[in-house]
Amino acid sequence: xxxxxxxxARFIRYVKIDTESDPNSNTTPSTxxxxxxxxxxxxxxxxxxxxxxxxxxxxxxxxxxxxxVSHDTPTIGFISHFDTSPDFTGKNVxxxxxxxxxxxxxxxxxEQNIVLSPKEFEDLLLYKGQTLITTDGTTLLGAxxxxxxxEIMSAVEHLIKNPDIPHGTIRVGFTPDExxxxxxxxxDVEKFDADWAYTMxxxxxxxxxxxxxxxxxxxxxxxxxxxxxxxxxxxxxxxIFIAQKYIDALPKNExxxxxxxxxxxxxxxxxxxxxDYTELHYIIRDHDKSIFEARKQQMLDAVKAINTExxxxxxxxxxxxxxxxxxxxxxxxMHIVDLAKEAMQQLDIKPLxxxxxGGTDGSQLSxxxxxxxxIFAGGHNFHGRYxxxxxxxxxxxxxxxxxxAKLQAAMKK
Length: 413
Hints:
The protein is of the alpha+beta class. The protein has two domains: about 5-210 and about 325-410, Zn peptidases (Aminopeptidase, 3-Layer(aba) Sandwich), CATH 3.40.630.10; about 215-325, Alpha-Beta Plaits (2-Layer Sandwich). The chain is built from ten helices and 17 strands. It has helices spanning about 5-15, 35-50, 145-160, 190, 240-250, 290-310, 325-330, 335-345, 360-365, 390-410, and strands at about 50-55, 60-65, 75-80, 95-100, 105-110, 115, 130-135, 170-175, 195-200, 205-210, 215-225, 265-275, 275-285, 315-325, 350-355, 375, 390. An eight-stranded mixed sheet has the order 1-2-8-3-9-16-10-15, with helices on one face. A four-stranded antiparallel sheet has the order 12-13-11-14. Helix 1 packs antiparallel against helix 3 (about 145-160) and helix 3 packs across helix 10. The longest helix has 21 residues, at about 290-310.
């Protein structure tokens, strides 16, 4: 049996370490504080008996659990990221534990009257009677993806302590900067040397994902003209109002808050500006490659139309692709999805096979030659004050890893 108390203690230890990444940094990792958890993981991996434990100059952590069967099996990897989102603070995280959740509101913070309610988050009701770990309402929790790290660490430790459980060679990898789209940029696939891997970076129990968005980032730059407002007639050009024209040029019903399933979106996630100059930062997402390309063209066309309307070239745009739909690379090796599906079913977990509506290192890794579906880690409401994770889901995710290892042992390379 998985050591529940140790799993919880491990997770809480990790989330208390601030590892927020920074999209405005050019270093890897993007913040020095990510090294704190990376180095801790290296020490813990060594202490538990993992082999070939190393950390490179960019804070990528890798380690090996050698095979304990006599025949050659495929080498399988498990990967999670240790940074947390810059969308909401991850500093001074104060985890709170609610035992035997009763299905009612959870008061996260009495002083600020912050409440986690099933009226707003119906998923809570899936976990009545279970143990929930939440925030105190002032930070994110960091289950994305420290739950995944805790599960991988607990699974390999369980296998080490129970050598009677057969398994092939298992590789583990922990990455920085996934939350800013760079988690796989400097991941050494050749060094990792696995036939395939799984990211433990999903949400609800049972999630098994092998299709992802095609993704791009865009920065719209708007140059205005600043003069004294008392003498502005016929002279001032307010870049903020032009920015509003651009925002309104994209379809309002194709924003994240209005889309689901396979529907893509335009997401305005940052605005910086004043009268003289404004920037709009967008992310563009779609599972369908042709629609993805059309979305990028739509943004380019909006720039052209507004420049024509205002009779000037005050608006420009930079668009950079980030990753592509990993389903393209996993479809030829669907047995790796079937393996994870079987591992779940053996634990009476109903696999929820669906496309990812978020980013994952697995998208880039799959195109780098390491097919990498995504498995649930258990958390909900990522990137904000209402984040929570059921302990029972974390235990199940850990057991899925162990079950995959058992199934791996019966395979021949």
